[in-house]
Amino acid sequence: MIAIIPARFASTRFPGKPLALLHGKPVIQHVCERCLESRLLSAVYVATDDKRIMKAVECFGGKAIMTSKRHQSGTDRIAEALAKLGQTFAPETLILNVQGDEPLIDSKTISALLKQMQKSNAAMGSLMTVITDPEMLDDPNTVKVITGKDGYAIYFSRSGIPFNRDKLPGVTYYRHIGVYAYRLDTLQQFVRIPVSRLEKIEKLEQLRALENGIPILMVQTTYQGLGIDTPSDLARIEAL
Question: E-strand spans in the chain?
């Protein structure tokens, strides 16, 4: 099992955020260190499109792979990085995708996802957490997910789902956290599939998997998925 962390330099709201300092270390270094704390991972790589990020990773002893600037998603960047590694992996090898702007990701959360993937033999997996703030239900930047009894995702949406028409009590809502684990053959299949109809509508990449029959196992966690999108997010996380 290996982790590949996609990290691009260009960001509309926060250019160069993987290199922003958080308590004296680049954000990307925090993410790498959290991944390395999981003993289930045999290696951790950063897949980047910028030499400045690559140099920073190498300076703190990490491993980085240069990839194209043309990728539209982190998944595509990971697929190219895997190809460039030049290693032969078994089709069932687990690949972990952790975003390069999530410095608070912890090894217990990572290991919980990987263990469930091993136990279930699922093709693809991700994380979800209970929504405790009602305002998140109406926030399109908070992605919601509903699952079946088997724990697999039924649908992801930027809208509040399920819609509680009759205001029934005790309805629990879940927020999707964008950490993914894929089997190698599933990842390779995914990147060959064109952008799907629902993916275009919701602007959610994971819907491409569901529309094309790739099931996604959802693992519940208490991790809140606090990423960095703006300089103010960086200040908030530094305070934490």
Answer: 2-7, 21-22, 25-26, 43-48, 63-66, 94-97, 124-130, 144-147, 153-157, 174-183, 217-220
**Domain covering 2-239, topology:** Spore Coat Polysaccharide Biosynthesis Protein SpsA; Chain A (3.90.550)
The answer to whether 69 and 63 have CB atoms below 8 angstroms apart is no
Do the strands 144-147 and 174-183 form a parallel or antiparallel pair, or are they unpaired? Answer: antiparallel
| Six-digit token string for 48 | 């980047």
Residues in the chain with pLDDT values less than 50: none
Distance CA 143, CA 240 (A): 23
Whole-number pLDDT of residue 86: 77
Provide the residue ranges of all domains of the chain, joining segments of one domain with +. Answer: 2-239
Q: What is the pLDDT of residues 55-100, one digit of tens each?
A: 999 999 999 999 998 888 889 999 999 999 877 888 899 999 999 9
DSSP state of 137: G
Tokens of 88: 């032969």
Find out whether 154 and 207 touch, Cβ atoms under 8 Å: no
Give the residue carrying structure tokens 């300076």.
Answer: 59
